Each structure stands twice: as structure tokens, then as C-alpha cells.
Amino acid sequence: MSDSDAWAKACAEDLEAEKARRRAQRATEPGSPAEEFRKLFEAVADKVSGGLGNPLLGGQAAQTVQQLVNQAKAVVEPVIERNPQVFDHLAAAGSELLAAYRSAVEGHESRWTRGGAVPDADDPRRDADASHEDDRKDDEGPGTGQHIDLD
Questions:
Q1: pTM to 2 decimals?
Q2: Could you tell me the CA-to-CA distances from 106 to 99, 110, 115 in Å, in that order?
Q3: Do 103 and 125 touch, CB atoms closer than 8 A?
Q4: Residue 61, helix vs strand vs coil
Q5: Phi/psi zone of residue 58: left (φ > 0), alpha (ψ -120 to 50 degrees), beta?
Q6: Is residue 52 within 8 Å of 61, Cβ to Cβ?
Q7: 131 and 144 in contact (C-beta within 8 Å)?
Q8: What percentage of the chain's residues is helix, strand, coil (to nearest 5)?
Q9: In terms of Cα–Cα distance, which of 112, 94, 113 is closest to 36?
Q10: Which residues fall within 8 angstroms of residue 61, CB to CB, at 6 or more apart?
Q11: How confident is the model at residue 101, as a pLDDT?
């Protein structure tokens, strides 16, 4: 076998291996939020239906649960089909809420690890926090204490 044949064979093998790797990667990637919700709902419904098939609970309880699961599926499926964008928005909102929570926790942790010391003079939040604390008295609550004209 010549060097060019060996090189071509090695390249073809590498290409096939890369294609297989990408196919496997695509198979494990999550689908749209609507599809993921459908999978979650199916898994929960199967778990509930299967878990209550216990002979100690009786056949009537298992039938009732299965009937409830089927009714829930009948309600949820059309909602998922008609409004998949809702789940996209809910997923985005969840991500934003998680980011806000992380930010709040990181800020709290940084203040806690400083031991409650006075913030650094370079910290831009120092001036904002100090100005709001000086404007109100202890008995006024969390407001700024400034008059609001409603007219």
C-alpha cells in the first residue's frame, strides 16, 4: 500500500469517526423547551402510573390514577402543540431569574466574606447604599422618606 492510499484511508476513517461523534452529540442535546416539557410530563406520568400499580393499593386506586393521568395528558398536549413559544419564553424567564438569584447570592457572599466591613472606596455600590441609608429614619421603614406628589 502506498503512502497516499494510507493517508486517504486514515482521512476517511477520521471523517467517519467525526461524523459518528457528531451524530451521538446531536442525539444527547436537549430539544426545544416544549419538547423537554413533554418528555418531563411523560416521565412523571409514567412514574405515577407505574408506582401506583402496587397490589397493596388496590386496582381501583390504580385505575383512578391512570384515568387522571390520561385526562392531564389530554389537557397538556394541545397546549404544548398550540403554544410552543410559551415554553421558550418560560425557559428564558427562568434563566433570567436564575441569573438574578446568582447575582444576589454572589453579592451577599462577597459582603459576608468581608466580615461586614465598610465597602471599599472603589466599590460603586458604596455611594448608592450610603445615600439611601442617610435619607430615612429608622421608624420610616424601607422607603426613601421623600414626599410623593400625587396631583
A1: 0.41
A2: 10, 6, 14
A3: no
A4: helix
A5: left
A6: yes
A7: no
A8: 75, 0, 25
A9: 94
A10: 52
A11: 93
Q: What is the pLDDT of residue 143?
A: 59
Alpha-carbon distances, residue 77 vs 36, 46, 52, 68, 102 (angstroms) = 13, 15, 23, 14, 33
Beta carbons of 71 and 16 less than 8 angstroms apart: no
Cα–Cα dist 130/108, whole Å? 17
Among all chains, which residue has been given the C-alpha cell 469517526? 17
Picking from 14, 65, 26, the residue whose alpha carbon sits closest to that of residue 44 is: 65
Full pLDDT tens readout for the chain, 151 residues: 567 788 888 888 999 999 888 877 776 666 788 888 888 888 888 887 776 555 555 667 777 877 888 888 888 888 888 888 888 888 889 899 999 999 999 988 888 888 755 555 555 555 555 554 445 455 555 556 666 666 5
